[in-house]
Structures are given as C-alpha cells and as structure tokens.
Specification:
heterodimer; A: 310 residues; alpha+beta; Alpha-Beta Plaits; 2 domains; 4-stranded antiparallel beta sheet; 10 helices; 70% helix; elongated; B: 231 residues; alpha/beta; 6-stranded mixed beta sheet; 7 helices; 10 strands
C-alpha cells in the first residue's frame, strides 16, 4: 500500500477513533441520545416482528379461504375437470377440488334429510362446482379479487362465491398494520436524523475553536466534517444495537405468556425474533440515518465557521 | 511575494481598519509591521492570511489575488501561509505532536512524512521530547514555540506572526525573533506585527509603520517615525 493510501486510511481511522473518544468522554449525553434513537428504531422493528409472528401463528389462515365456482348446468364432468386443470395452472392458485353434481347431490341427500323428496326429481338440479384454494401468498384482498374476476370471466361460470370473508378482513388488517408500521418507520427515521443532527450541531458549537484552527491551517470543509460524520454514524450504529437489545429483551419477557396462550389452544408456539437480514437492515439503516443527520448538520453549520486572527 | 495596492478594509460594524494602504514585501524578505493598538496591524495580517478580504483595492500574496480567490481554493492558499498568534491558538486537549502535525494532516501528507517533519519542527523550536505533553503542561513561552512549530511544519513560503513576543520575557522574545531570522535565512518571507519598537529598532530590518489604518512614511534617513506606542 502506498504512503498516501496508508495515510488516507490512517486519517479515517484516526477520525473514527477520535469520534469514539468524544462519545466516550461524555457518557451520559451519549447514553441518552442513543437511548432515544434506540427506542425510536425499536418501535417499527418490534411491530414488524409482531406482524410476522401473527402471520406465522395463523399461517394466514390459508386453508380457510377459498373460492367456489358454480358452473352452468350444461357443463359436464369432463369439461369441469378441464376447467379445474386450467384454474390450477393460475399462479395464485394452490389447489382445485371438483365437487361433481352427483357428489353434491349425494352429500345433500345425506345431510339434508330430504332423501325421499330428492328421489322424486327426474334430473340432478345441482351444478358441478370447483373449490379453488388460493396460494399462500395470494390470500390478500386484492389477489383474491383478481382471481375471482378471472374465474367469473369464464363463459362456463354461473356464479363465483368468495368463502372466508373474515379471514380476508383479518389479512387486510395485517396489511394495514404493516403499512402503518412502514409509515411509522419513515417518520421515526426522520426523528433519528433530527436527533443526530441536533446533537452534532451542539458538538460543532462546542468544538468551534478547534474547527477554526483546523481551517486556519488549511483544513477543507470536508476534512473538518469527517469526524462529525463518524460521530453521527456511531450514534446510528449504537442506536440500532440498542433497538436490538430492546426487542430481544421484550421477546424474552413476552415468550412465557405467549407459550401459555398457545398451550391453551393445544398448540406450541415460540416467538420468532428478527431475521438476519433484518438485523443487517436495522444496523445498516440506523448507521446511514446517523450519518445523514450528521452530514446535514455539519454541512449547514461548518460552512459558517471561519477563522479570525483574533 | 506580498503586495497591497490602495487597500481599504471596513468591517461589518462600520469600523474602517485600513484606508488606502499600499505596501510590498519581496520574496525572502523579513519586515516588521508596527504601530499602536488599533493601528491596523492585525488587519493587514488577516488580509495576508485570507482570514479577511479587502473592501477595496488589491491584495496579492504569492501570486494569488486574495480578493477574488474562489472559496474552494482558500484551504490550499492557507497551507502556504504559516500563522503565529499571540494567544497561540493551540488545541488544549491534544498533545504537542498532534497540534504541530495538524497542517500536515489536513494536507494529506503520509504518516512517515508527518513524523519526520513534526520532529524537525519541534527540534527547530527546541521542544523535541515534548511531543506527548499537553499544551497546558508547558510554559507560556513553550506554548508560543509550539505555535511557531505548527506554523513552520509544512514549510510555508510565507510566515506571519501577530505579536509573537507579547507574552514572553525579553530573553524568550529574543529567542523567538532569532528563530524567525533563521527561517528567513533559508528563504521564508516573514512578516512580524509588533508594537515593540525597541525590538524593531534593534533588528535593523525594514519596518512598516501603521497609524489609524494608514502607513506612516519613514524618515528619509530610514529612521522610524516617532509615534507613541501603547504597551
């Protein structure tokens, strides 16, 4: 490595260590800033983890949602099977069950108690029915409606009936919650930027003399800004780690009552923490937010500080 | 090396610090800038170091017209002008080594170059061995010498000093001025602002005398004009 390159890396390392030193020398101020950021970041991630756990616990009630396609009376069983195969090839469909007119009549005869009356009928009045089960990822309201339209558009279709409205409403609620937490994540992210920006602004004021001397000997705005950017990034990283700690501790505290609840339904359920990619996203995102807050504050305030000869 | 043409400087508060000042300092020359407090000495130095821009007139330093120099070129310009302050302007939470190394660090010098030059500069001011000391652990004279080491470490072609001996006893003041003479001896252009007329007269060097923001002409004999200087 060339001398210039090693010098460049060494100066960045020096700026990083220097920034860490500044944070360590003001432990209480650092702690409170990091706590505020950690709690702000923990809220959206915690909600995301909650939504995922609810989805995992309910399996999106996939099996409880289906679409019944009542075919015209003139559609025979073989044609109904072909239509079933066509429906099965749709990407949003997990399974298709054909209930033939004969099966339906037999079932009705067994369950209704009108056996004798049915014997009087010369023809089976019931149609062939396809029961379409959507794929696990296609149980949302929009996906179901899209699938319903496809099936209703067949000329052989008499009518289409969506089953399990409550499940769709439940999933719509989870979708709404998911969007709300994305919005909350965005707003709280802005809050993190503002907290770091204000902290860096105060830091710049406290180190005004040092900044003046650095500019006096030829330091560029970029050079002067560097340690503040590292400070912001460190705040973000520490805030992200604090958020993980909050979520981890919350998970530990909630696991016993969740297990108890699951057992009362005769099931076993263990809370799932954030996935590995979530951890990367949280720590990377919080670091970038901290850096961004510092960059905004430093760019605004450092340009105003110019050395005077006294 | 340094040329002022009909320079005026009025600060934002309306005070006129300089009015119609023209002067010239040749490359490799050492001159004194003297006059009573408020005469405009510090303003002249600020204009040389581009800490201020002239309100009127032209200031040329090492080929750069400071009145119109683009903001992005100011850092590079300042690296060519070493500045020594009466109050040292040291970073008190950093050791001597870091203080002196600062101009080289901002200039992206290599670590080896920084180490070599910092030790050489400290050796020049007689502070080799004090690298790890904090400025607060040094005497006022030593702190002044750290400030000088910082000003010369990047070997700037121009060195300006604002009352560099103001806080020093006569012996230390003499040592500091001898150091400036040595630097001047190797080609550095030196401008020293002082109100110590005895120092100026004893040096035998050219002096530019300011009074109320204007240059006072020297006597034909070269003898300094008689002015009352506040001590």
């Amino acid at each position: 490595m060339s001398g210039a390159a090693s010098g460049y890396l060494a100066r960045h390392a020096h700026a990083l260590v220097s920034s860490a030193g500044h944070l360590a020398r003001a432990p209480f101020a650092t702690l409170f800033t990091v706590l505020v950021m950690g709690l702000a970041l923990a809220l959206p991630l915690g909600l995301e983890v909650l939504v995922r756990n609810v989805r995992a616990a309910t399996g999106d009630f996939t099996g409880a949602v289906s679409i019944s396609v009542y075919l015209h009376a003139g559609v025979d069983e073989q044609h109904a099977r072909q239509l079933g195969a066509t429906a099965r090839s749709h990407p949003g469909v997990a399974a298709v069950q054909l209930i033939t007119a004969a099966q339906a009549l037999a079932q009705f005869r067994a369950q209704s108690g009108f056996g004798a009356a049915l014997d009087a009928l010369q023809d089976n009045p019931l149609p062939n029915v396809l029961v379409v089960t959507p794929a696990p990822g296609a149980t949302g309201a929009a996906s179901m409606e899209s699938l319903r339209r496809v099936l209703a558009a067949w000329p052989e279709t008499e009518t289409v009936q969506l089953d399990g409205d409550w499940v769709r409403r439940f999933n719509a609620l989870l979708d709404l919650l998911h969007r709300a937490l994305l919005l909350a994540a965005g707003l709280l992210g802005l809050g993190v930027v503002a907290v770091v920006g204000n902290t860096i602004r105060l830091e710049i004021q406290n180190r005004r003399a040092e900044i003046e001397v650095t500019k006096l000997v030829g330091g560029t705005n970029g050079f002067v800004r560097r340690p503040f950017l590292y400070t912001g990034a460190l705040y973000g990283l520490l805030g992200g780690l604090t958020a993980l700690l909050v979520i981890g501790v919350s998970g530990l505290l909630l696991q016993p009552p969740v297990s108890e609840l699951a057992r009362s339904y005769g099931a076993e359920f263990a809370l799932r923490g954030p996935a590995l990619e979530d951890l990367g996203l949280l720590l990377g995102g919080s670091t970038v937010l901290g850096w961004l807050g510092a960059w905004l504050a430093a760019s605004r305030h450092l340009a105003r500080i110019e050395p005077g000869a006294g | 090396m340094i040329r002022f043409e009909a320079v005026a400087k009025r600060y934002r508060n309306g005070r006129e610090a300089l009015g119609d000042v023209s002067l010239h300092v040749a490359p490799g020359e050492m001159v004194y800038l003297t006059g009573r407090s408020g005469a405009g000495k510090s303003t002249v130095l600020k204009l040389i170091a581009l800490l201020e821009r002239p309100t009127r007139g032209s200031v040329s330093v090492a080929g750069d017209e400071t009145g119109t120099l683009a903001a992005r070129r100011i850092p590079a310009f300042r690296r060519r002008v070493g500045v020594v302050f009466q109050d040292h302007r040291l970073l008190h939470d950093r050791p001597v080594y870091d203080n002196v190394a600062l101009p080289l660090i901002v200039a992206d010098s290599s670590l080896r170059e920084i180490d070599k030059r910092v030790r050489a500069a400290l050796d020049q001011v007689g502070l080799l061995g004090c690298e790890r000391s904090l400025p607060s652990e040094l005497s006022v004279g030593e702190q002044q010498r750290v400030g000088i080491a910082r000003a010369i470490v990047s070997r700037p072609p121009i060195l300006i000093a604002d009352e560099p001996t103001g806080n020093l006893d006569p012996q230390l003041a003499g040592e500091v001025m001898a150091l400036f003479r040595r630097l001047n001896g190797v080609g550095v252009t030196v401008v020293v602002a002082t109100h110590d007329l005895h120092l100026v007269r004893a040096s035998g060097l050219r002096a530019i005398v300011l009074e109320r923001g204007r240059i006072v002409p020297n006597e034909p004999s070269g003898v300094l004009p008689v002015i009352e200087v506040a001590r």
